[in-house]
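Writing this down once: the sequence line spells out the residues, with the fold written below as integer tokens. This is how one looks:
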Amino acid sequence: MLLAGLACACAAAQGQDRSTPAPEARILIERGKALLGQYQCGACHTIPEVPISRGPVAQPLDAWSQRSYIAGRIPNTPAMLAQWIMAPQALVPGTAMPDMGVSAEDARAMAAFLFSLE
């Protein structure tokens, strides 16, 4: 997401459309979307644009970028979301969100996609 944010900031500085991420950021976002499908996050969550993600167990992940907190208590930033995706039990012991064995690189991509959801 940092990459996406930087890309948008650079685009704005150059007078370009801020809603269109730079190609590198778009690749990261698309990779994150694919990873959410591969890790089967949709078994619990409804996630826009991710096939077969109609999970009724956890809250839907639409408009993620508009949220203030993760799990109702962690500030919603791209870095904190990536940490949450990697090790939710370390941040909120006893949370229903399981540790999925997500790498730091994959978590950053997944966070980039979720923060692209407005």
Remarks:
- The mean pLDDT is 87.
